[in-house]
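Researcher: I've got a protein sequence and the SMILES for adenosine-5'-diphosphate. Could you write out the 3D structure of the bound complex as structure tokens? I'd like something to compare against our soaking experiments later this week.
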Amino acid sequence: MFSPDFIWDNLPAGLLVIDHQARIRIFNRTLANRTGLPAEQMIGQRYPEIYPGTNKLKLLEALYTGKVYDQIRAEEVLPVPHTSILAASCRPIITAGGTITGALALFTENAHLREMQQTVMKADRLAIMGQLAAQVVHEVKNPLTTIKGFLQLLKEESHNFPKQQEYLDIMLEAIDHANAIITDFLQLARPGCSCWKRYAPEKLLSEVCLLMESEAALRDITIRQVIPEVLPPVWIDPEQMKQVLVNIIKNSLEAMPEGGQVTIETSCRTQELLITISDTGMGMNELVLENIFEPFFTTKASGTGLGMFIAKQIVHKHQGDIKVESVPGKGTTVTISLPILHREGGMP
Ligand SMILES: Nc1ncnc2c1ncn2[C@@H]1O[C@H](COP(=O)(O)OP(=O)(O)O)[C@@H](O)[C@H]1O
Ligand SMILES: [Mg+2]
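Model: Sure. Here is the predicted complex with adenosine-5'-diphosphate in place.
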């Protein structure tokens, strides 16, 4: 039971031993399982002949030069598939008299490499899913437009049938809602659209204010900007960051049905730029505050619940943070922090 064969077959590591003629003497079961190579066919073969054309195998170098290799890639010893997550160590086998009589290679699981591989595979899968989702959503837009067009036609032709008109209105509303979700979703997943720039915060804010001013005026709301004289530049995707601010300001406008004021304030801390957007609106309770960043969470009849979720994703992509404070009946303050640019291209 304690024969050497039995013991090395049960080793939790792969073991490959060659003699002084480079003939394989030991090819244990763990290594056979890990590589898919049949041990019985490997034992007795000359090791270099398994891989004709490769003379840089580290195990041969250990045999011929006495060199020791630790934690090298397993492919450098056994160039077969499936070994990439194994690490290998090679040693010459030396007699008491100092003669090299063979060499051995030990293969162990490279846990760090395996973890990295799994992370990369997962990230790849997610990126592909994201692109696919964006494309699918984009494609759905066209048929929805067609359906909406025909529903509008039907509505025009059915003014004598109030019940039908009512159904058609519900259908049109549902289509508008689906379109709103698509538009919001595409803010985050615009395929292939990402353009990072060194950007002046005051430029970003004035562009956003310009975008929002007419809607604010319609609602009897003023937008006030408080900007200190000198602001350091930030490294951002300006289109996406504008989207963040638009989503937040839009919520503020929607929270003030009777009019009010939105204040956008910018300031600098040591390493970060702070942008706070405060409103004098209805505020929100604990439950809403806890769920505000959840996708599809909305308290509005025609809301998508994607605005804040998307804002958070984008801010995190900028290595920043976003926080919300609110007092029901008084108003809400959203604070975004972004890292300040210290050197050219210092961020992704
Ligand atoms: N400034 C704000 N004042 C009051 N409530 C807010 C404000 N911003 C967000 N909320 C709440 O958070 C919810 C989620 O916001 P959002 O993700 O933008 O989705 P939506 O605006 O489509 O509802 C809103 O439905 C609202 O209840
Ligand atoms: Mg919103």
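Model: The domain at 4-109 is CATH 3.30.450.20 (Beta-Lactamase). The chain is about 45% helix and 25% strand.
Researcher: Great, I'll pass this along to the crystallography team.
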